[in-house]
Structures are given as structure tokens and as C-alpha cells.
From TrEMBL:
It comes from Rhizopus azygosporus. PANTHER family: TRANSLOCON-ASSOCIATED PROTEIN SUBUNIT ALPHA, TRANSLOCON-ASSOCIATED PROTEIN, ALPHA SUBUNIT. Residues 1-23 form the signal peptide. This is Uncharacterized protein. Keywords: Endoplasmic reticulum, Membrane, Signal, Transmembrane, Transmembrane helix. Residues 227-236 have a biased composition (Basic residues). It comes from the Eukaryota. One of its GO terms (cellular component) is endoplasmic reticulum membrane. The chain crosses the membrane at residues 153-173. Residues 189-206 have a biased composition (Basic and acidic residues). Its main location: endoplasmic reticulum. It is a single-pass type I membrane protein. InterPro entries: TRAP_alpha (IPR005595).
Length: 236
């Protein structure tokens, strides 16, 4: 961790020295650089994503160079001198031989307001006798926010948690207000099932309800039934 911090400070310090030297005396390097956005062919930059620029560096001199670092800055689209933010510098240390070409990637992240912005990418070159900075890209980019998706796992998980919470609240409310009603209904059903029907005796045999028959008719029926029993016994 300490070595990484010291390396970052060293890069920033050297870039600061480069800026001072270049401001005082610019070395004219016959080096052409073209930039390409392989993942963003129309210069459409999405916030929060890692953006890549491929720099094709062509050395037209007979002097070799060393590509020390690549950096960049985001500026106002109407005035590139108004810098919004400097991008992180990446150290390379790649040798660019005389009259040869070299391709290097440069990555940066975007966290800016949506809309058009200016982007400038610098390539810092070292030689035995000079320091040079060439522009790798200087143009307009369009920054947008990422589109939301219904298939986002985080959103699905959040919806699941909300649905589970709503179901739990509904269950508590139902038990609090309607739980006693169900218990009373069940108790009544059990009591009704335990009562013995009035039209059957203890043995379960059918018993006729004679309460509606006049009393003298019931006495006649009893006398006739007793006579019938006596006759049957006499015959035996």
C-alpha cells in the first residue's frame, strides 16, 4: 500500500514537472496519435461504467521515445480551457521505437452531469534530450446516466423484501381483528356436533315425538298395544 501511494505521488510530481517544462519550452515531436472508443463508437459515455480509449501512436521521427504516461481532462463543451475535472493519469513506460507505431489503452470513469462535455487526452513522451506532450484526443463526448432495468437483481430482491413485509403486516392485522371470529365459529360447530338428536334414544333407535297427539288418543294406543301383547302371549 505504501509503495502504491509513493508511486502515485511520484507520477503526479513528474506530471507537474512536465507541465512546467512544457509551458516554458515545448518540444515539437513528430508523433501522430489517433483515438478510438471501441465500446462507445459514437462518443456516448455512460456514468458509472469503465470507458476505454485505444490510442494509436505513430512515431514519424528517427528518434525513439518512451510513452511515460497518459492522462486526460473533462472540460466545458463551449470552452475547453474551463476544466471540469482532471482524469487519473496512467503510467506505462512503453518504448516507442523510431518510425514505428504503438497501441495503448486508456481507461477512465465518468461521474458527471448528463449532457455534452469536452474531453482531452494527453500522451506524455520522453526522449534523451526532450520532453513532449501530444494530444491523443480532443473532442466532444455525450454523457448519459445508465438505464434502469426490471431484471436488476438488486431491484428484484428489494421488491421481494417489500412484498414479504406487506404480507406479514396483513397477517398480523387479520389475526388481530378476525382471529376471534374464527375461533367462535369452530367452538359452535363442536358443541352442535356433541348434542344428541332429540328423535333418537340413548341406543340410537328412532323415537317418535308424540307431544302433538292428544292425551286420550295416546291412552287408547297404549291399551290396544297391551291387548295385542296379551293375545299374542295367550296363543303361545
Amino acid at each position: 500500500m505504501m509503495m502504491t501511494k509513493y508511486s502515485s505521488l511520484l507520477i503526479l510530481g513528474l506530471l507537474f514537472v512536465f507541465n512546467l517544462v512544457i509551458a516554458q519550452e515545448e518540444a515539437q515531436a513528430h508523433v501522430d496519435v489517433t483515438a478510438e472508443f471501441p465500446d462507445n463508437p459514437f462518443g456516448l459515455i455512460v456514468n458509472g461504467q469503465r470507458n476505454k480509449v485505444i490510442l494509436d501512436i505513430q512515431n514519424k521521427e528517427k528518434t525513439p521515445y518512451t510513452v511515460f504516461a497518459i492522462s486526460g481532462q473533462v472540460s466545458k463543451v463551449d470552452d475547453f480551457s474551463k476544466v471540469v475535472r482532471n482524469l487519473t493519469a496512467t503510467r506505462y513506460g512503453q518504448i516507442l521505437s523510431a518510425e514505428s507505431s504503438l497501441q495503448l489503452p486508456y481507461h477512465f470513469y465518468s461521474e458527471y452531469a448528463p449532457g455534452e462535455h469536452g474531453l482531452t487526452v494527453y500522451v506524455d513522451l520522453l526522449s534523451e534530450n526532450s520532453i513532449a506532450r501530444v494530444i491523443g484526443y480532443n473532442g466532444t463526448i455525450t454523457i448519459t446516466d445508465p438505464e434502469g432495468s426490471w431484471f436488476d437483481l438488486q431491484l428484484i430482491f428489494m421488491y421481494f423484501i417489500l412484498a414479504a413485509g406487506a404480507a406479514g403486516v396483513a397477517y398480523v392485522i387479520r389475526e388481530a381483528f378476525f382471529g376471534d371470529v374464527k375461533k367462535v365459529k369452530k367452538t359452535k360447530k363442536v358443541e352442535e356436533s356433541n348434542e344428541r338428536p332429540t328423535h333418537r334414544d340413548e341406543k340410537g333407535e328412532m323415537v317418535l315425538d308424540e307431544s302433538w297427539i292428544p292425551e286420550h288418543h295416546r291412552n287408547l294406543n297404549k291399551q290396544q298395544s297391551s291387548k295385542t301383547k296379551k293375545r299374542a302371549s295367550a296363543r303361545k
